[in-house]
Amino acid sequence: MRSKISFTLSVFIISIVGIIFSAVIIYFPTPEILVQPVVSIIVPQQIVSGLPVRLKIPKIHTDAFIEYVGLTTLGAMDVPKGPDDVAWFDLGPRPGENGSAVIAGHYGWKNNIPAVFDSLSTLRTGDIIYVEDGMGSTTTFVVRKLQLYGEKDNASNVFSSNDGLAHLNLITCEGVWNPTKKSYSDRLVVFADKKIK
To answer: Which CATH class is domain 46-194?
Structure first.
């Protein structure tokens, strides 16, 4: 009698476990399905939206990662954190969009450490600049002119344009170092225009 009950109980338990196991397989996704949403969640923002990621200037051997910056507490454009990267002013247009996209980089870093825009002043009209975005597209710009701005000069034209074309303006420091202000006396701007294919 006990063996019949044990056998019947065993069959019953095995049946219940089988039903639960089948329900789990049918109603819950497999691990492969679970992986897909996680992958799409961790994709970096610049790859999804096509934001700029690299600045390349062959003439001065520049190949720099692009950070995104806004305004400082004093209302000036912020700068990249270190000497190797550049910073795109993300409150303005993206490089390649109509308007003036602005990218800043350091010059004359402390302790004689090379900075990304140390040689920016050697660019000339007609030199080529490339900006790559997170989607793998490259926009080409051609240098139009270089202009030096003093500390009190109006530089509003660096951040705006009304000609309906796409521009890229590169900014760095130039001139004499002021240890009190911890800043250089001038700003060098390279004005470039999107190359029409």
So the answer is: mainly beta
